[in-house]
Amino acid sequence: EPCCFSQPKNLPVLAMASAMPTMPLCWLMAVLVVPVLGLTGPAARACQVFCEGDLLDAVQRQRIFADGKTFVDRPLRSDPEDVLEAFESLSNHSDAQALKDFVELHFEVEGHELEAFAPSDFSPKPPILEKIQNEGLKSWALGLHELWKDLCRRQKPAVRRFPQRYSALPQRHPVVIPGGRFRETYYWDTYWIVRGLLLSGMNETARGVVENLLDYVRDFGFVPNGGRVYYLDRSQPPMLMEMVNAIDEAHPDETWLQEVLPVIEKEYVFWMNSTLGHFLPSLQLNVYFSNAQSPRPESYFEDLATAKAAKRPKAEVYRSIRSGAESGWDFSSRWLGDGEHLSTIQAEKVVPVDLNCVLLRMERLLSRHLRQPRAARYARAAERRSRAMQRLLWSEDLGSFRDFRLDTLKHSEIVSISDFAAPLWAGLPEADQGLRLLKQLEHSGLLQMGGASTTTRKSEQQWDAPNAWAPLQLMLIEGLEDLASHVPDAMVLAEDLSQKWLRNCFEAWQKHKAMFEKYDAYRVGEGGGGGEYTPQTGFGWSNGVAMVLLAKNGNR
Predict the structure, then answer these.
(1) Out of 19, 297, 349, 395, which residue is the most buried by the measure of CB atoms under 10 Å away?
(2) Active site positions, annotated
(3) 340: number of CA atoms within 13 Å, CB side?
């Protein structure tokens, strides 16, 4: 069997530091080759402008745009080689006005590659309305349903005709974007969007957005962070198997399922390839890891500032930042060495509870859906991961699961919703752990009047207190619902959290006429803050989660 299915080694804790990736020739090859699989053609040409080089550096250092993502989202009016040649002819690459004029001359506006699209499976009376009796909530659910039309886009034919001119990766099917500055598909966001689309009866649209992600795996071997060439150095929490399973449960299609399962297996190989740094064979567990060692193109200026403030080589800082971005929690005190300053980020040295729970569910779902003997291989892999997580990530003293830090060889000091939501959602707790987890959750300080806070640490990072995020609420609620089969009190807490989250979102909807990307767990009806960009509205995963909870609780 492949090395990723090998038996775990029972190493003492002090030997775990050896599990961190070293930097031999194979690592260097990974830096140069693996992140750009399939990029020998148009995408590689596009990367000359959107991923690296003097033009990117000059524009982003001068901060021509307040949001650096604006620049790298703007399509080229001509081929990248022509634009770069014109740039070289500029006499002064430090002249902000000259750079701004250059961009306006050679680039289209951001979002130019997209056009509005009316999905054919949109109905003015979605199935979810039948599940809700309260008229106020029914009106809200209908409003959420209507938002899908606002968030649905398709790429113009020019993206496929001239892909070298776009940072956007070509897609065969229409997409449902998160909203705001996020004008492309994002990997793990899509799972909760799919859940909402299925409740809206938009099954064809849901399957199409998942097919786009499957295409990424077919082309690159993994799903990138988002649908842009500058995201090809990293992925996000691997939720593609969950999306396929959700579609299969809503509308079973065994032929389609068996066609796409090998694609999921291909993605699994990416995550279990120790050469890429994601899989630590000595621990039989995974970490987030990017091989790139330069500022993120979309947050270039911010990364320069972070690296300048750090007390270590800039290349290490950039890699850690990108690894943290792969988590989807960009950023959180979970990844910070001192729990406070972004310059101390070391995300690749944290063994995260949630990533390994997602992979555990992937293994279990593959073992359920595949045929023998492949199914048995994934069942064994799931069992090995479960044992490894119990050994390393369960803290008997804390009575909960907790991230493990490879830099200190200790459990993290950060109390996070991921300590509870992910293990419960993955069915990880053993016999007596469920009740202990429930009690620890109730006394953790995470549960607030507007839902569960992301961590108990208040910081300037958006994946910390006081912010609360829709996907984590649903993960926790559904985990508690599963726990209730043998710990009945868990259902009481699940229903209470559902009510609090719906109230928070509903009051914000009434007050601001919008759905937020994130919410304030301490102030009901208000959006969250912090992070690298201004708060966004839209918003794909918040809409999807609200619809799921309305379907569960709409009559209460």
Answers:
(1) 297
(2) 330, 517
(3) 2
pTM: 0.93
The two three-digit tokens of residue 16, written as one number: 């775990």
Two tokens at 85? Answer: 């040649």
Per-residue confidence (pLDDT) for residue 39, from 0 to 100: 67
Residue 533 near residue 182, CB atoms below 8 Å:
no
Which residues, at least 6 apart from 552, have a Cβ–Cβ distance to it below 8 Å? 498
pLDDT tens across 414-464, in order?
999 999 999 999 999 998 999 999 999 999 999 999 999 999 999 999 999
Q: Which residues contact 108 (CB under 8 A, 6 or more apart)?
A: 74, 75, 76, 77
**CA 554 to CA 199: how far, in whole Å?**
13
Q: Which secondary structure element, helix H or strand E, spans residue 84, and what is its range?
A: helix 80-88
CA pair distance 221, 35, nearest whole angstrom = 9
Query: H helices then E strands: how many in the chain?
Result: 21, 14
CB atoms under 10 Å from CB of 125, counted, come to 10
* Stretches in the chain below the pLDDT threshold 70: 1-40, 556
Q: Please count the other Cβ atoms lying within 10 Å of the Cβ belonging to residue 489.
A: 14
C-alpha closest to that of 151 among 97, 114, 99: 114
Per 3-state DSSP, the chain is made up of helix, strand and coil in percentages (nearest 5) of 55, 10, 40
